[in-house]
User: Fold this.
Amino acid sequence: MVALETPPRSGSSADLALVQMIGTRLNSVLRGKAEVVQNVLACLLARGHLLLEDRPGLGKTTLAKALAEALGSRFARVQCTPDLLPSDITGFNIYNQKSQEFEFRPGPVFSDVLLADEINRATPRTQSALLEAMAERQVTVDAVRHTLAEEFFVIATQNPHEQHGTYPLPEAQLDRFALKLQIGYPEADDEFDMLTGAIADVVERRRQEPALMEAQQLVQIQRRVAALPVAESVRRYLVDLAAASRKHPEITLGVSPRGLLTWQRLAQAWAYLAGRAFVTPGDVQEVAFPTLVVRLGIDRDDPRLVIEDLLRRVPVPTGHA
Amino acid sequence: MWGSASPALAWLMALVAAGMLEITAGSDERSPWTTAGVILTEALLVIGLHWGFRSTGWSTRTARARLTWVLALALIPWGVELGVRMGLNAMWPLELILLAAFRNAVLALAVFAHEPASQRLGCVLSTFLVIFASALAADFWLQGLVMLFAILGVWWLMGSYWETLRGRLAASSEQGLPRKWAVLLPFVVLLCLLTLPAAGTQVRALRGFMPSSGGTEQFSEAARSGVGDGDALVAGTDNIRSFAPIEDAPFLSSHEPSLYDLFDDSYNEPVKVDQQERAIAIDKEFAHQQKEHHLAQSQIAGKQFSTIRQQGETSTAKIGNRKSDAVLYVSGRVPLHLKLQVFNLYDGIEWYPQPLANREMSLKMEMLHNRPWLRLPIAAGPDIYAAAETHALKIVRLNSNHIPAPTQLLGIHLDKVNQADMFEWAQPGVVRMDREKLPSQTVIHVQSRVVDPRRCDAGILNFDGRSVIYQQFGADPDSLKVRELAQEWTRGIHGDWPQVQAIVERLRRDYVLDGDARPPKDCRNTVADFLFRSRRGPDYQFASAAVYLVRSLGHSARLVSGFYADDRNFDIRSRHTPVFAVNVHFWAEVNTGSEHWIPIEPTPGYELLPPPPTLWRRLTDSAAAALAFVVRHPVACAALVLLVAVMGVLRRRLIDAVATLRWRWTGAADPRRYALQTAALLDRRFQRAGLARPVGHTHKRWLRALAQSAAGNDDALLEELTALFDWAGFAPAAVACPADDPISVCRNAERTWNWQRLTRIAELKRQSQRPRPKDRNRRSISLPILQPAQRTG
Assistant:
């Protein structure tokens, strides 16, 4: 993976340093998962939303809370259940008897960082309401449009091993997530350090840690990431990859144009995190798996092999050919 | 058959084009019914294949599959031609092979005429086929078919235009390989052909759009027609190509008696010829050449030949006074013995020409391919001959009416000379024209056959002929000594032909050709003097000795004089062999019975014409010649083989060294360009070392994999280098170079990833790929593109 400690050569060094500090803080709460943290940061900078697919107790909520704290943002958590209604997420109008008017009670989507836990347990109707908010960054309640925060960031989780009583997200909804990550169990040494740290009640201490970045700063960094130049050959490479995904014999659903745009944006974010002022094919490949695994229809148990094969088939531009 | 009219029209156009080719190819060779049958078969094949492919679903295959199918069919004629040449020793004209390839492509595309790209390409190729097929023949049907094709073409263009407007073709056309190929391939082929002159090769095919087998300045046995300098070309005076390329052009007006009687008063008064000879009438249309020719006189043939000659240089004054010394030109295989006169009686000094016997068979004229051929009667004899072949003799200034011809003469052809009484026997086996001399600038086609030595060696050849006039032998002591010598040379050899061969071989081996050697004036038997005293002499002494030795064994033999078309004089460019005055030659013939004579060549340095070699024979001869060269130059060949072997083994390293030198010499002024050149250099080096970067791997990923496999500790360089490569390849111009000294980084990388290191890595790779079940800890450099990022719980 690309090391964060690489000194930035272009762009705002201060902003990059702030992002790196966020990464350091996330690494301190999610031990031994530097690459997951790097992907989370890339997803954040690319203005995407994150789907964490893993078992309970691996630090998903901790990660989301730590990120919200580091950003100084409002954090909200929704525990998705079958009886969760769309209005429980978006908010609703309630009649105020005192003022004799309907007033809007905003839902958890009006936070900056939203953790939608076990999203596949919510009904499709509720899922759809959340996913619409993710894509449009706005909700409409009773014909009134309510704009969400510009830095609105969703971390949704789902348990891949308990499918009973769940509503799996359809491909069209999955495409709205930028990345899908698996945290996985930590290494033994990291677990040992974790236990050691828990003795001092680090949870209470972490709550008192100050925010590292303001919301406006994050938006500026996101805009800077979006403006990172992508060479023509790299754009052509992305297009070739997308075309190859649509012709691959083991892929039933290829990359959509929206997915391709997300892929490019994530590659830009990855280049920014590497301190580079331009995107390389290596950046495209680095973010390929988490980007594609969430949106490709793959007829195979191990999607990694298919995506590897996809990347192996398409020639990488070298600049000299 | 199809949903719209365009595919059907395209199919019809293809069929018309293919039909025109069949008519062209079948003109004069096939009956109209046979040609119609072929066309019908092709149409049924196209229909059958179309339905077959559609029913099996093959029709929906990719454009690449269709293109492969078309190319495979287009290549079939070349394979068939190769087989025909190897198996039957026959050949097709080049233009017909090419057009047959186009026909196959057109018909193959017609099978997929429902597919727009195939349909359009097929129509273009059909047009090409029609243009060239109609230009190759003048058949009546072709004119009508051209008009039909034009109507169909216009109709198809209209239909395609309207379909394009409706977007039907555009929506269903593929943007794949065939369209690119259809545009690029002709340009690539044209470019390749245009580069040939730069390599010193004259591109004859570019004179027109299509190569032809005639008029190409090349002799081709398969030529169908055409003007140029093939068999039909008349010999020139100074240059073989200085005359008009048709046979009858030079005989229009001359001070010399012409073979053709010119009736033309459209110009001035006819040139009065010195003497009038027999002539035939020709058409007025040939009266377009006014060139005059002043021909020299030469001696006529038909007198005795003395084997005692004057000392001194041979005079050429009698032959001619032109700048060109050539007496005639031979087009065809050489060396060739051209017989002019035969001698049968020998008195020890003089050879006397054989008189014409009264029993000579009459000469008959017959038409062969619309050409008059004088057919010579050939009695039945042993099957020892190779296939008949034709030579063209282009007479320049031979003042004899004897037609020079090979021994086993089968026929004679002069253009438009269709009367047998224009020819007559001069001597047994020698034909002359009923004129005082052969018309100069004439092309005489002679058909003959040669003896195949392999058939003679089979033991079927025994001499039955016991004609007294060819067995005349003296009873003087010299003659008896000659007989004893012949018996000594043939002792233990059984069979007539092996004995003759033994004598010829002995003469060629033990005696020296010396044109200046002369027997003493008081010599009574020049053969004995040559055999026992001087052991050297001119060719007539060899021939005389051979005849006399063969006769001493009781066989029939005779002396022959004429010309020897020397293969060393063969002009590769014009494909002609000039025959000069110095090429007069003597040799011998032995009789095998009836009128079958076999030439023998006892003079060293002269060779008989071998039978036409087959393709296999030519290959084996070439191999034998190469082997002989190797045997003659063992050291040089061994050194060459060693050098080639070393270069072969080290070829990749040598190429890499050259590429590295070139990389070093190129300027390093632009860091970005230099970095890209370094990346390209390393890529090619990896490839040559067997470590080619997979197409899906970035430089960084592949270099890291190689570094890990080599246990190298150059992470810093690797990071710096790949950052430099990325910057050079993908960074905008405004982004500064990531390295402080990019030139040194590149050079350092070139030194780090040197050839030795890469060969070590390649060896490790090979070792890791060998199946070793017990070794579970072997290192492999196969690096997955995606690192295992997380482990799922």
Notes: The interface with chain B takes residues 1, 9-10, 33, 35-36, 54-55, 58, 181-185, 229, 231, 233-234, 276-282, 285, 288-290, 304, 307-308, 311-321 of chain A (CB under 8 Å). The first strand of chain A starts at residue 50 and ends at 53.
